[in-house]
Design a protein that fits this description.
alpha+beta, four-stranded antiparallel sheet, 32% helix, 15% strand, globular
């Protein structure tokens, strides 16, 4: 492991974040130029799993200042500083233009696979993880490719995620967002709104990394506000 990789890992630790792998950049990745006009050489994905990030964020000024998109702003403040200290730049899944292909990047970094819910499932973290940023560096780092691991969903015969939703918002046809949003706005949807998606919570993989109820409620409210037409981007890439 390179000194640069280790230094970034150390800087992320107090934030409850970690490096989730990376890859050597190619011209076809169409990445931005770095400070001093250097070309991008390495992309490192930053993410979270479990409750660590929420514990760090929930005590921050952004979490309590009442301004829009607190998690995005908190992430940007810290990740911009870390990337700049390494002579690089940070890119975010909540960037509107351009929209960076974080899912494609994730598949180049980790053995993640689409789940029946549409979320990426990780063999260790299950559905309880997310990608928060990518740090782009001019330094070429020697990074191992992700291991080849089959999706946990392949051996899951019961698929409780597909039957747990109380309004059947998940099916072979996809995710019925309007039905889900209407349920969350109703009294019957209080459990989902306050504790997180029941379908997601039904997945047996990665249960040790489940988010705290307050974090689940935060992301559900952000989702509902976006669907209801707030005009903002979600505070979550999950």
């Amino acid at each position: 492991m390179s000194a640069t990789f280790q230094a970034i890992e150390q800087a992320l630790m107090p934030l409850g974040l970690s490096l989730r792998g990376g890859f050597q950049a190619a011209a076809t990745d169409d990445l931005p130029a770095l400070p001093a006009g250097q070309a991008a050489a390495t992309v490192l994905l930053v993410g979270n799993a479990g409750p660590g990030m929420w514990k760090a964020f929930s005590g921050s000024a952004q979490a309590h200042d009442g301004a829009p998109h607190p998690l995005n702003r908190w992430t940007g403040q810290h990740l911009d500083a870390i990337a700049n200290s390494m002579g690089g730049v940070a890119l975010y899944p909540f960037d509107a233009t351009p929209a960076w292909p974080f899912q494609r990047w994730a598949a180049r970094c980790e053995p993640v696979h689409p789940s029946p819910l549409g979320l990426f499932i990780h063999p260790q973290y299950g559905l309880w993880h997310a990608y928060r940023a990518a740090i782009v560096l001019a330094v070429p780092l020697d990074l191992a490719p992700p291991p080849s691991v089959a999706s946990p969903c392949q051996s899951c015969t019961d698929r409780p995620c597909m039957s747990r939703c109380p309004v059947g918002a998940f099916s072979a046809s996809g995710y019925d967002v309007p039905t889900c949003a209407r349920h969350l706005q109703s009294p019957a949807g209080a459990d989902c709104l306050q504790g997180g998606c029941l379908a997601r919570r039904a997945c047996p993989v990665g249960v040790d990394y489940q988010q705290l109820p307050a974090q689940n409620a935060f992301h559900m409210r952000a989702f509902l506000n976006a669907v209801a037409g707030s005009g903002g981007l979600l505070d979550s890439t999950e």
